[in-house]
Amino acid sequence: MLSKDQALTMLSLQARMNAKVDPNWVQARYPYLRAVAIEGAEAIEHHGWKWWKKQDKDLPQLQMELIDIWHFILSEILLRNEHESAEPLDALLAAMASITTQDSVMIDGNEYYLPDLDLVRKLELMIALSALRRIDMPLFASIMDDCEMDWTELYRQYVGKNVLNMFRQDHGYKEGSYLKEWQGREDNEYLVDIIHELDPQDADFGTRVYDALQAAYPA
User: Fold this and answer.
1) Is 204 helix (H, G, I), strand (E, B) or coil?
2) CA 6 – CA 2 distance, rounded (Å)
3) Rounded distance between C-alpha atoms, residue 181 and residue 97, angstroms
4) String of b and e for 118-157 (b: at least 16 CB within 10 Å)?
């Protein structure tokens, strides 16, 4: 499970990123759960579902889709609550607590028992719930398990991607002056090394990731 500090860090980073994209993002009320549905469909494509041709599951891409989905889930939680107060944190922690008490999903009077479902079926359920404007944390946690990702890895990858996106914006990404390749390696490669060298339990994990990127970036 996420610690309280980790949950607060992710909510804070997401609010900052949303404000970077659009300072009026709260008033705009973007359909974040629609984005979850679209990313869920992309995850199914990375898993493979076509019975008329051979397909191999792409686990790294599935995990990347989960990170993107988590961005939008956090955004929806922030939007539904006062993003400047403790309410989003309380809502996220309450949703996390439901993981240990719920093992099924109810839609239109039909109950779906999660341990009986394969990954594609779970992704379909997440898409359906997103269309109904519902967030189901036990379902998301079950999908994570099937994608061989625990909460520590989700936190590590989420913070890393969020901080890298912010770093890019701060260093001229929008203006076209940002250098994506550093000494023959892409910034994503540096990021992977950095997030696995640092301790994700550190309350300043996000700041340390940013500082490490800054230290590696060509002057």
Assistant:
1) coil
2) 6
3) 41
4) ebeebbbbbbbbbeeeebbbbbbbbbbebbebebebbbbb
Separation of alpha carbons 82 and 88, rounded Å:
7
Burial class of 174 by CB neighbour count within 10 A (0 to 12, 13 to 18, 19+)? exposed
The predicted-structure confidence for 171-208, as pLDDT tens digits, reads as follows: 998 899 999 999 999 998 899 899 999 999 888 899 99
How many angstroms separate the CA atoms of 186 and 143, rounded?
A: 29
Quick one: average pLDDT of 56-64? 88
Domain boundary (132, 149, 166) is at: 149
Q: Cα–Cα distance between 145 and 10 in angstroms, integer? A: 20
The beta-strand segments (E) located in 88-130 are: 104-107, 110-113
Residues 69 and 105 in one domain: yes
Q: Which of 131, 149, 167 is the last residue of a domain?
A: 149
For residues 166, 169, 170, 171, the Cα torsion angle rounded to the nearest 10 degrees is 120
Q: Is the pTM higher than 0.85?
A: yes
3-state percent helix, strand, coil for the chain, nearest multiple of 5: 65, 5, 30
